Each structure stands twice: as C-alpha cells, then as structure tokens.
Amino acid sequence: MADEFIALSVPNLKGNELKYVTDAVETEWVSTAGPYVSDFEKKMAEYVHTPAAVSTQNGTSALHISLLLSGVTREDAVIVPTLTFIAAVNPTKYIGAEPVFMDCDDSLCMDPAKLLKYCETECDFTDGKLIDRATGRHVKAMIVVHVFGNMADMEAIMDIAAKYNIKVIEDATEALGTYYTEGRYAGKFAGTIGDLGCYSFNGNKIITTGGGGMIVSNNEELLAHAKHLTTQAKADQANFIHDEIGYNYRMTNLQAALGLAQLEQLEAFIKTKTENYNHYKEVLDKVDGIHVQDFRPGIRSNYWFYSVVFENDETGRDRLIEELKENHIQSRPIWGLISDQLPYEGARTFELEKAPWYWKRVVNVPCSTNLSSEGVDRVIDVIKKMVQG
Ligand SMILES: *Cc1c(COP(=O)(O)O)cnc(C)c1O
User: Fold this and answer.
1) How far is the CA of 225 from the centre of ligand 1 (A)?
2) Is residue 305, in this structure, part of any structural domain at all?
3) DSSP assigned state of 262
4) 1 in any annotated domain
C-alpha cells in the first residue's frame, strides 16, 4: 500500500500566482524594476501596518541590511538565539561582528530573564553603551527570532533593550501574520515592534516568492536607507554616483508577482494552519509522554510550524522521524544549536539550558497549508502507534 507522500511544509500556489507571473512575463518586466515589486511592498506594509516595506532577495539579506542599519560594525557584539535557523546569525559574521548566544524559554524564543541577567552580570553600562566585560565589545543590537510563528516576549525584551540602549531586530521570517491580541502591543504584528523587522518568502515559509524577503520598520528614514542599501546605494542614478557600499538585494518583479498572489491568501493559509494545529493538539496532548508545543497566550499566531515534544524520552525524536519516513511522511528535528556548529566554535554563550533540552526532544510534523484533516489523522496514527507501542 503506497500511501501518498506527506511533505513537511511545501508551497501552495493555487491563487493568482500563475496569472500575475504570466503578466510579468508577457509585459517583459521580469527584473528588479516593475510594478509588482512596489505593489507587493505596499501591500505588505498595509498588512503589518508600517509606513512602508523594502523588498530583498531573501530573509538573510534582509537581516544583513538590518544589522548595517543598526550601526553594527566588526567591533561590536550582537545578542542572538542559539536555537534557531543559522541564517538568523550568519549576517552578524558577514559584518565581522561577534554573536553572543542566548538561551530560549518555553516559547522556544529568547528568554528575557536570561537576557536581563546577562546584561546585569556580564556587562557594564557606561555612557549609554553596554560593554561585555569578557570581550570588551559593545553590545549594539540583538536579533530576536519569533520561532515557528510564536511571538517572543516583546514587552520584557523591549524594556531591557530600552534600559541598555540595544537595537532590536526582529527576525519574523517564520511569523508573518502573528500579532499581539492583548497587552501593551495589542494589534502589533511580529516584526513591527523592534527597530527593524525581517520577513522571508523562502519555499517553506507561510507565503513564498520562491526566494525573497522584506524589511519593515516604523521609522521611515531607516526604510529609505534600507532601500538605498539594497539598490547599490545610488546617490545619482543617472550619472552612476554612489555614496556608500551598496548591495544588489532587491527582489525581482517575477518574485513579487508570486508574492502578491500569496499575500492575498495569507489569512486563509493561517486559518488552515490553525485548524490543523488544533487537530494535532487535541489528540496528541492526550498521549502520555508527548505534547504539542503551545504558542504564547495573548497572541494570534500564524501557526507556521508544529512541534511534538518528547517529555522524557531522548530517543523518541529520532525513532519518530524514522517511523514517519517509513510511512511516507516527512518530518524533521529542531535545529542543531548554532553555538555548537563549526563556524561558531568558541563563540560567547550565556547559560544555555533550555535550548539543548528542546534540541533533543522536538520533532516538527507536517504543517503545509494544503494538508487535509485526513492527512493530519494519518500523521497522528503513526505518532500514537509509536509512542504507545
Ligand atoms: C528562513 C529563515 C531565515 C532566512 O530566510 P531566507 O529567506 O531563507 O534567507 C532566517 N531566520 C530564520 C529563523 C528562518 O527561519
């Protein structure tokens, strides 16, 4: 019995994608000039309620530009999470700055209590600068990742950032559509609370442009500068005069045509993701030894990725991935800790405890927006059989 393959997280292109891309091709606007780019930027800004948005080639380049806009140089340090995708951290190294790896809490996002403890016990705050005593580096910025569509504890994090004059870059590449429903930031979308926010439209994200990204901010000057840097820093375009080192990071019209069609369906995608999440959770939370990881209360999550957590059994993760594979179901472990990876050997870390715990115990299960309720049941059956024996 060859059961149909169930993928982990794949694109869903059944809206106006073909129509808009065909239009881009037929009008021969395929590169970085073209109406879809500015249209997509405008619609994104409207959706997350920022004055504008600046497109990029991917989420990684959006983060790179955001670090530059935060004034980070090779002399500085940047606080980053250790439990996330490595693209959230690599741009720090593109600039030559040094990461300081921070632990997560049970939201899988940065732990604000540890963040505060690091600032208080490991650093000096003088002349408006937070200096890491061990390295002598100025801790100028932090990258806060909204892991799997959850929201980091932005109230606590923004307070610490204000106290110690640290710029906040939100890596909202996994959290487009997530927003606070309660508290100080009610109505605010992930990516729009810190100084700068970054989105990704990679193939596995909640909406895709094949590859692409976006920078948002409430600061229009920063956004204008972002556009300048992503388009080769042209001071006088007609005469090829450039006033900074710029980058060729702008999205193409073809990508933006896809993006525009995808954005039209975002709320419908979130609806499906929510239903499937609730379905998994309702059944699997009753199974002894595992649970489906919660999202923070007081938010509307986009429910991008679902995490099955083995509470006590460290062998469960790999056994489940194997068992699902035999049943033609794709899954994956959570990321290996970035501070354990070769390029980050010897990097500065601070009290990593929860991140290694989750690393050994999380399996991400299928969450595509075209996954049916029957598909979810098939995945649930395999999990139940394995865990209950
Ligand atoms: C996907 C992702 C990125 C990078 O986005 P790309 O578009 O693939 O460059 C960065 N950070 C996190 C947390 C991601 O999941």
Assistant:
1) 22
2) yes
3) H
4) no
Summarize pLDDT for 269-294 with one digit per residue, the tens. Answer: 999 999 999 999 999 999 999 999 99
Q: How confident is the model at residue 389 (pLDDT cuts 50, 70, 90)?
A: confident
Is the pLDDT assigned to residue 265 strictly greater than 60? yes
Q: HSE, CB side, 13 Å, CA atoms: give it for residue 283.
A: 18
Ligand 1 binding pocket mutation candidate from 8, 92, 171 (most atoms within 8 A of CB): 171
- CATH code for the domain of 339: 3.90.1150.10
Residues 214, 271, single domain; the answer is no
pLDDT in the model for residue 3: 82
- Which of these three, 263, 281, 299, is where a domain ends? 263
141 and 211 co-located in one domain: yes
Expressed in angstroms and rounded, the spacing between residue 126 Cα and the centre of ligand 1 is 34
Tell me, in angstroms, the distance from the centre of ligand 1 to residue 133's CA.
31
Tell me if 136 sits within 8 A of 98, measured CB to CB. no
**In this structure, are 212 and 126 located in the same domain?**
yes
Q: Is position 74 within any domain?
A: yes
In this structure, the chain runs to a length of: 389
2 confidence band (pLDDT: 50, 70, 90):
low
Q: Is the pLDDT of residue 38 over 90?
A: yes
Indicate whether 1 pLDDT > 80.
no
Q: Cα(348)–Cα(17) distance, rounded to whole angstroms? A: 44
Task: Tell me, yes or no, whether 271 and 257 share the same domain.
Answer: no
Residues 158, 159, 160, 164: is their CA dihedral positive or negative?
Answer: positive
Q: Is residue 290 part of a domain?
A: yes
Residue 372 has pLDDT above 70, yes or no: yes
- Using the atom order of ligand 1, give the atom closest to the CA of residue 211: 7
Q: Which of 238, 263, 288 lies at the terminal end of a domain, its last residue? A: 263
pLDDT at 326 over 70: yes
- As a whole number, the mean pLDDT across the chain is 97
Task: Tell me the C-alpha distance between 208 and 261, whole Å.
Answer: 10
Q: Which of 63, 150, 200 most suits a substitution to test ligand 1, by most atoms within 8 Å of the C-beta?
A: 200
Ligand 1 proximal residues by C-beta, below 6 Å: 58-60, 84-85, 87-88, 145, 171, 173-174, 200, 202, 213
Q: Is the predicted pLDDT of residue 65 greater than 90, yes or no?
A: yes
Strands 77-81 and 98-102, how do they pair?
parallel
Residue 271 and residue 242 share a domain? no
Residue 220: CB atoms within 10 A of its CB come to 11
Query: Going by CA atoms, what residue is nearest to atom 2 of ligand 1?
Result: 173
Report the atom number in ligand 1 closest to the C-alpha of 147.
Answer: 13
Q: What mean pLDDT comes out for the span 98-118? A: 98
Structure tokens at 34: 């073209």
Q: Which domain holds residue 246?
A: 17-263
Domain count, the chain: 2
